[in-house]
Amino acid sequence: MDIRLLGPLELLDKGVRLPLAGPTQRLALAGLALCAGQTVSSDELARLLCSPRTAVHSAMARLRRALPEGAVETVPGGGYRLRSGRTAVDLARFEDALDRSRALAAEPAGRAEAAAVLAQALTLWRGTPLAGLPDDSPLVRRERPRLVDLELTAREEWFGLRLALGEHSVVLDELTDAVRLHPLRERFAVHLVLALFRCGRAKEALQTAREARHRLGRPARELRELARAVRHDDPRLLLPGPDPADGAAAAAVPPASPPPAAPVPAPVPAPAADPAPRELRWPPPEGAGVLPLLGIADVRTYSSSSTAAVAGCAPSHASRALEQLAAAGVTSVRGPGVFTLTDAGREAAVREAAKLPPEQHRRHLAGLACWYLGSLYRINVPLAVPGNYRVRYHDGADRFPQGRLFTSVDEALPWADAVLEDVLSLAVQLCVPEYDDGTELAGRPLSSFALEAVRALESYLAIRLRWRVQRRLNELVLAVAERRDDVFARAVALGQLGKVHALRGEGEEGMELLRRSEELFRSAGQRQEAVVALSNMVPCLGNSGRIAEAAEMARRALAEAGKLGMDDLQVTIQTNLGRCHLHLGNHAEARGLITESYAAAKLPYGRTHAAGVLAEYHLATGEFTEAARWAGRALGHAAEQPFDPYLVAKQRTWLAAALRGMGREAQARVEEMQAEALLEDLNTREHSRVRPLPPGVSLRGTDGAGVPGGAVLEGLHKQVTPAATDGGS
Fold it and tell me: Is 118 in contact with 161 (CB distance < 8 Å)?
């Protein structure tokens, strides 16, 4: 068996590549291979997989089926180990060869063999290590920078051996390329200066040293002393003996392909092209002081406000620092007042951040996390949301006074769109056990960042239907909750995951998750949250064909919401109950309930929902003119604030059906085309195929986008066919 980590993850058995089904299998294999010959505990695997400890056993069972028989053994006490040991993993073979090379190089007589051993070992590298694994996984974030640094360090040592053997003219071009590709690796610059000097190009050597000092700002003593020796034409820099260009034997040279590894890929690709590495310059003092702080968090985009939060300085100081960093090529301008770290800039920032004391690193990281949470809670200020959500968002904004302010929906939602991937990356970074202690997040530990984020983003996620991010964030919440035995957090995650499953057509899974969420909320004394979860089960049942059960559950939820004074929720539940009666054939009862809901609705969502179901009622009774009137009214209410694309598409579908019933085919087709266009972006982004079903189809499949508060799946006709997914996830 051969497990290859030094490039795209590959598994071979007797030279035949074996398939790996999905990211969970691949992460599990990589986790074991990185500790080849050693035991990996179940807790460590759970952290690497971002999964509950209880899920590790099933993940390992799937991995065993993919590997040759007996490849993985279970260790008493709760852990797993690869039986094949170090020889089966390319990384372990490389590390062993590197150790051997260093031992040989300790004696001058062994340098030629050391260079040959190291050259052969470097051929194991096939590109970016751990490629093909999720970039936002804790394993990749922890191990890839280490592995990239390991390769570059080995290449630095290999160049050093070649220079010690007098092969400066042979490696000159390769050293020039290495400095161009990795301008912030000082050892490459030192080697190039020495090689140029030995090739009789002292003037170019001094120029290279000056450029390196300018890039690095504070070069190490070795580079300064080397430049001084070059200026004085110090004969000690010359190496006795012939150059291999004159016929001496040289150590084996690593093949030209692949080239040295590129800088560590960022978790989110920068939207603008990065400046070439050679344009990087060490910034003036303000920018240089901020640079390390931009490397502590797994985010790429900064504004003066977020930079001030992470640096603990005034926004004006942060703004000047960002402009200096942009002039130095460390950042690129993404938009007015917004900057993105370039690849080379990110590499420099991460390296400088690693020099900070742990307590300082954590303090600055907490400042940025609090800024994000304050901003995320405030994006809801311009939205019309149910009362219980309004209380939650105001409380969150009070607990996190840092962050941006928003005066309009058109300002708030696009900002959230732009930072969503950075929020996810930061949540992944903070979900690990080392952040389980402390009170930095308004009394909670830093590992609670994902929980606070999903609570703050619930309205946004319901409007934008960002299912992938919502699912990933809640998986992180669940992993931390399982580890910390946090009942409330577990209930939150299960409830939101239940809605995502239901929306994607996985009704039974959604129903079970919502049921567990309700039970946990009740055990934690959170009655309002429990009623919301109960309400979300109503359309799940209805769209599974269990309409009578859905009606009974709606009556229960309606009564409890009334006792708790949840007026906005009552409107939505009653509309869903009316819809159940419509599909049970109780038309008079249905019309009464829905009409009453429309009259009581105070929020745009409640009015849109009720008006749309009244349009559906009139379609069912053949009153097409009334159906068109109510569908048009629903679209008017939907224009009062942003709504999820499916809700608006459904109203256009109802309007198209009404127009067709009135004999206005051309207008009906226009409405249908607009509905299809609304869903195109959603289907592309979320890898799904969602389309409204025509009126009159029974409530089957799944339904429901959420209210802007995320409170209820509103009971839409909907068919979802999930796109092909990676089977191992």
Answer: yes
